[in-house]
Amino acid sequence: MNSVSSFAPGPLPEFLPASAASGSAPDRVRIDLGDRSYPILIGPALLGWADTFQGLPQASTALIVSNTSVAPLYAQTLQAALQSRYARVLLVTLPDGEVHKDWPTLQLIFDALLENACDRKTVLFALGGGVVGDMTGFAAASYMRGVPFVQVPTTLLAQVDSSVGGKTAINHPLGKNMVGAFYQPQLVVCDLDVLRTLPARELSAGLAEIIKYGPIADMAFLAWIEDQLPALLARDPAALGQAVRRSCEIKAWVVGQDEREAGLRAILNFGHTFGHAIEAGMGYGQWLHGEAVGCGMVMAAHLSERLGLIDAALVTRLTRLIQAAGLPVVGPRLAALDNAGRYLELMRLDKKSEAGAIKFVVIDSPGSAAVRSAPDAVVREVIDATCVAA
Ligand code: NAD
Ligand code: GLY
Fold it and tell me: Residue 235 and residue 44: Cα distance in Å, rounded?
C-alpha cells in the first residue's frame, strides 16, 4: 500500500502579472511568520541604496560573506551602502562552487567573525547565490547561538527560492544539504540588476525553480512562463521582476503555512528527490542544482503519470518547457550496471525518506502536488525510461 500525504492549503493569492514593480519603489513580498516575519524587496539598483537596509537591527559590525566570483563584482557597492549604518563593514571571500559547501569553508566564516572579535549583534550579509546564502545562514544560525543575517541573492535561483524561507545547510559527501538548520533572515534583497552578469547556464538553472512553482501550485503562472520564456531568456527586466515576484509570493504562501516542513512545504521539493541523487551521484558541481532539479522534474512528472495521477500531455508540456529553458531533460547514468539501483540507493538518503522508504513529490492534478511513496519497480521503470541508455 502506498502512503499518500495530500494537503489542504489556504487559497493562493491570484497571479496578477500587470502589477509588477513600477516606478522607483521596489516591489515587496512579505513572509508572514509572526515575530520571524520579514520582507523581500525586488527591484533594480537595490544593492547600492542605503534605504534598502533601513530597519535592520542596530549593530556596530556587518560582515559580508561572498565568494571569489561575486565579491569582485558587487562587494564594494554593498559595502558602500552599508557604511552609513555600520561602523565596521567586513568582508570574507569564500572559494566559489557547490563543492565548497562544506565544513572547511563554513569554518572560514567563523574564523573571520572570531578574528575580528565580532559580537552577537553582528549582522551577516550573504552576497551570492544559493551556496553562499545557505552557508551564511547556517553560520548565522550557529555563531554565538544565533546572529541576525540578510540575504542578498545574486543568482536567479537564489532570488526565487534559496534566499527565502530559512533553510540553511552544508553538504555531506553522502548526501546533499544534510547538515543545517531552519533560520530565517531579517530581510531579502533581490536586486534585478545583478542578474545581468549571470552566466547563461546559471540563468537556466534559476528558470528550473521558477517553472517548478507552476505544476505544484499555479497553472496560470506556468502558462505565463511559457509565454514569457523568450523575454526571460533575454533577461528582460520586467519579465524577470514578475517571475521573481510571483515565485516569492508562492514560496511565501507555502512557508507561511508550514515553516519547518511538517507537510505542505515538501511540495517545494518537486523534482528534488531525483535531482539530489543526480547531484550527489555525479559529484557536487558537475550538474548545477537547477539543472538536476529541471531533469528531476521530468522524472517526477513521468512518475506521476505512471501512478495514474496526470496524463501524458502534461508530462510532454513540462518536458518541452524545461528543455526550451536550456535545461537537460534526460538523466545521466550514475552506474554502468544497475543505474536504477544506484538512483534508488541515493534517494533513500533523501531527507523526506522514512525508515528507508523514499517519498516523492508528485503532481496529483495540474497545479497541485502531494507526497507519496511508490513501488521500487515503478521507480525503476521511470529511471530506465528517462535516463541515458546503457
Ligand atoms: P551558486 O551559489 O553556486 O551560484 C552559481 C554560480 O554563479 C557561482 O559560480 C556564483 O559565484 C556565480 N554567481 C552568482 N551570482 C552571480 C552574478 N550576479 N554574476 C555572475 N556570477 C554570479 O548556485 P545557485 O544556483 O545560486 O544555488 C544553488 C545552491 O542553492 C545549492 O547548494 C542548493 O542546494 C541551494 N538551494 C537552497 C535552497 C534553500 O531553500 N535554502 C533552495 C534551492 C537551492
Ligand atoms: N527549496 C525548498 C524549500 O525551501 O523548502
Answer: 13
